[in-house]
Amino acid sequence: MLRTLALASLVLTVWGANRAPALTLVENGNPRAIIVVEDQANEFHLTAARDLQEHLRLISGAEIPIVDAAAARGADSATVRLIVGASKLSRALGVGNEGMEKEAYRIRTSGNNIVFLGEDITRSSNATAWAVGYFLDRELGVRWLWPGELGTHAPARKTITVPDLDITGRPQLEQRRLRSRGTGATADWLRHHEMGSRMSFSFGHAFTDWWPKYHEAHPDYFAVPPAGEKQPYPQPDRVKLRIGNPAVGDQILENWRAAGRPDNWNVCPNDGSGWDTSAESRALDLPDVFEPQAIWRNKANLTRRFVRFWNGLLVRMRKENPRVTISTYAYSCYREAPADMKLEPGMVVGIVDTYASTRIWQAWNAAGARLILRPNWWHVGGSGPHLPLHLQGESFRYAQTHAMIGFDFDSLMGHWGNQGALYYLIARLSTRLDLSVDQVIAEYTGAFGAAAPVIREYLAYWEDYAAKVATPVTAGGDVSQNPNGLFETLARKYGKTGSTLGTSWSMMPYIYTDEVIAPGVAILDRAAKAAANDTPLAKKRVAYLRTALELLKEHREVIRLADKKARRPAETDRDLVAQMNRLEARQKDAVRDYGVIGFTETIPSRLRITDPRKMEGL
User: Fold this and answer.
1) Residue 392, in any domain of the structure
2) Is residue 561 part of a domain?
3) In the listed set 325, 345, 376, which residue is the last one of a domain according to the structure?
4) pLDDT tens track for 237-251
5) Checking DSSP bridges between strand 33-36 and strand 66-67, what pairing results, if any?
């Protein structure tokens, strides 16, 4: 009897009665299967096949060969064939990908064969690899905690048998994006967590080229400054529009028409300050009234004017394309949704907000928007163990169950040793809505073997500390979590003003002192003792976290020495050079010993300092 279970990210079909006997892929460490890729020129099929091969090796030690169709036909009849990718061979078994939706994948047993395939609407689809990933996750318990072999938890077993399978899956969310360079082991990690998109909506600040295009012929397109200010402010690609001027809407529609009236059009305002103070745009704010300087300096809630403007665009555009949508951010001075206004159908809004409250998400949902989560959550905390696990995890889960159609995190910063538990939490929840925050944390700590309870204590220590620090969240202007929290208190004391994007780094010497780090080190020392008789991998993972804390100290000292006000009396640029060299050497050692460790490429870009090693005489 056939039954269908609807799960968060897939539709799972399971055969009940009369199931075929389990297939043995590995027996006592010896391979009893082959991996078949008919189209050896298809890099996506080969990637999926290599994923399957590598993880079966990690689990069992068995080397299962990847072969072509000819070799598969000559295999012994007792050999299990793991067929990767839609092919003539899979179709001969009655398993193809015809009619599959974009990003869908399928796993199906047929006799002595298991077929893994995905839709091939485009040759760039990772859906076949997701079929393999689903199998490794659900059937074999593999967990991808951080990039590389050390971060891959593959429970050991010498014999691998799998039941009869008939599974069709698809990522629940239309977009899953953790912004990253995405190369090497990091690209593999992102693929294992089903990052990708089938979304047709476009985002990003939409008018960055308008000033050079139009300012000479149409100066009336642009924001009117208050007395004493002038355009372009602060630079041409950030100039704001005079949206109260009907000609601006006319030009947007003309550009849309020239592009062929596509089904989606991006209208995200440019970033920064310098908002329009003209009488026409201020009339769109009514009944709200703001002082011109407050408007210009990003200190007024201007969402009302934008909702009226966007609604007007949609009404006009839908007369020419009834399917059209327009996309924008809820960000900066237009982050708050007006409680007394509704959106026209077709608004897609990317929410840029804190994780400490779901109020703004609720308001945009109630206004009728289709919602994308577009947070800057991971830009805070510098490179330290900033781990608000439950706050971020529960906020993410709330969005996922309240109209979220996708997410776009800016950015995956790569501080895996100190922040990897947070990255894993969000990535895992994105495809496993059936898991709670605590279950995902248990998966992460479970990879540390006998030290798991102590590692849970370690994460809890830093989670509690993150609550005390209460770092503001950047969302086109800082959103305070607690003005009396440690971060804002110390920032006032040491004069660290400005956006948290920058001050998260300059505050590291004050937030991650030796006195704060020491209890974390002590917990990891106990974890090392707990893991002393465990597997080499469990012990090495504990050592990896310890190394990340030691590197944090070195990184913190570079930042302190780069700030001449924070130096001790006898310290000079020479000490900064020596410390940078020390950090780089220790980073290289850590990468050699552990693989991905984090902290790379963060120092000059975040501090905006000239490399002092290039200074004359040093």
Assistant:
1) no
2) yes
3) 325
4) 999 999 999 999 999
5) parallel
